[in-house]
């Protein structure tokens, strides 16, 4: 979910003609699959008990993890290219535009 | 939902040709594109003729002139992993390996890959576009980031075949069977641009009863 938001997923609307979504299918609305992630990927939950929210100390590990993912990918792209990306999806088209307008900061 | 159609499984090429000559008949090989198009109502079918039982259309053989003859029912995965294709026609081997996803490469055929319908999201979506018999190409004023720059006229599709550019570069030809016999057409001349005919992607013509 987080990787999709960061790199591939975006609703495309036929804004100026019909207002309909043009990519409402799995071909044009790209969801990352198992082929888009490394073979080995280790998730490390930060095990700090939250005793204020509930009595068990449990914390959600579903949607909350999508919040920082795109920002983390954007930071990695900045580290690799020197370009600050502030919008998603971070894809080759957007990067080409940004790289053309910006040189790497020294 | 799929529309209602009659389904026939042809055992020989002649049988398939006879059935395909009727109005509203569609040919079914791997089915990866056909079933999606029917379900999304991109086009209709009165009958679907399966050719997958015709063994003569399957497999890769050496020709007497030193080339390869690839049956139209050969799957993309079979081409991608074939050692003869890899040794002699590396571009085709690489192109085949790039097609879609593993499931689609296992199911999709080279014939279907060359004959697939455009992936334009207006054509595939709920838009009554020119190519579907409407009176407007929505890509002209709409979201056209993946549409063609050259060769458009009143429709701006890009043919989605990954293997076609390799086959064109390798001077491949397609052998086409029809009710009046067979003919050979270079792959370069097999596809039509929208300027040639915005209702067809290839020189193949629909059947008429």
Q: Kindly state the percentage of residues in helix of chain A.
A: 25-40%
Please write the string of helix (H) and strand (E) elements of chain A. HHH
Mean pLDDT of chain B: 95
The residue fraction in helices of chain B comes out at: 25-40%
Q: Report the portion of residues of chain B in β strands.
A: 5-15%
Unreliable spans of chain B: none
Number of helices of chain A: 3
What is the rounded Rg of chain B?
A: 17 Å
| Helix/strand structural class of chain B | alpha/beta
> What coarse outline of chain B follows from CA principal-axis ratios?
globular
Contiguous low-pLDDT stretches of chain A (5 residues minimum) are none
Widest sheet of chain B: strand order? 1-3-2
Number of β-strand runs of chain B: 7
Classify the oligomer: heterodimer
Biggest beta sheet attributes of chain A: none
Describe this structure in words.
The complex is a heterodimer of chains A (106) and B (209). Chain A has helices at residues 2-7, 66-81, 92-101. The mean pLDDT of chain A is 88. Chain A is extended, with a radius of gyration of 18 Å. With 106 residues, chain A is mostly helical. Helices cover 29% and strands 14% of the residues of chain B. Chain B has helices at 13-20, 34-39, 76-80, 83-88, 90-98, 102-107, 110-115, 121-124, 163-169, 187-190; strands at 6-9, 25-28, 47-50, 60-62, 68-70, 173-178, 181-186. Chain B has a three-stranded parallel beta sheet, covered by helices on one side. In chain B, strands 4-5 form a two-stranded antiparallel ribbon. The chains are: A mainly alpha (106), B alpha/beta (209). Chains A and B meet through loops of A and helix 8 of B.
């Amino acid at each position: 979910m987080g990787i999709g938001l960061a790199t591939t997923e975006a609703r495309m609307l036929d804004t100026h003609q019909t207002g309909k979504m043009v990519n409402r299918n799995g071909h044009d609305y790209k969801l990352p699959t198992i082929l888009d992630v490394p073979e080995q990927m280790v998730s490390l939950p930060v095990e700090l008990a939250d005793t204020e929210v509930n009595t068990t100390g449990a914390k959600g590990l579903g949607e909350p993890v999508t919040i920082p993912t795109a920002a983390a990918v954007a930071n990695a792209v900045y580290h690799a290219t020197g370009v600050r990306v502030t919008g998603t999806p971070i894809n080759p088209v957007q990067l080409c535009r940004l790289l053309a307008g910006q040189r790497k900061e020294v | 939902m799929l529309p209602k159609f009659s389904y026939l499984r042809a055992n020989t090429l002649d049988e398939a040709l006879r059935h395909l000559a009727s109005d509203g008949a569609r040919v079914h090989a791997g089915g990866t594109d056909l079933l999606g198009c029917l379900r999304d109502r991109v086009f209709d079918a009165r009958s679907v003729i399966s050719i997958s039982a015709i063994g003569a259309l399957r497999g890769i053989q050496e020709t007497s002139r030193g080339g390869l003859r690839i049956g139209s029912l050969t799957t993309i995965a079979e081409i991608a992993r074939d050692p003869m294709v890899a040794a002699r026609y590396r571009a085709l081997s690489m192109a085949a390996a790039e097609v879609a996803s593993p499931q689609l490469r296992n199911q999709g055929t080279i014939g279907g890959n060359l004959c697939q319908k455009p992936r334009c999201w207006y054509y595939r979506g709920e838009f009554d576009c020119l190519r579907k018999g409407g009176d407007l190409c929505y890509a002209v004023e709409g979201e056209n980031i993946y549409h063609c720059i050259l060769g458009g006229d009143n429709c701006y599709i890009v043919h989605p075949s990954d293997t076609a550019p390799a086959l064109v570069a390798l001077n491949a030809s397609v052998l086409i069977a029809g009710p009046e016999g067979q003919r050979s057409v270079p792959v370069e001349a097999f596809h039509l641009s929208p300027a040639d005919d915005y209702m067809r992607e290839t020189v193949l013509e629909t059947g008429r009863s």
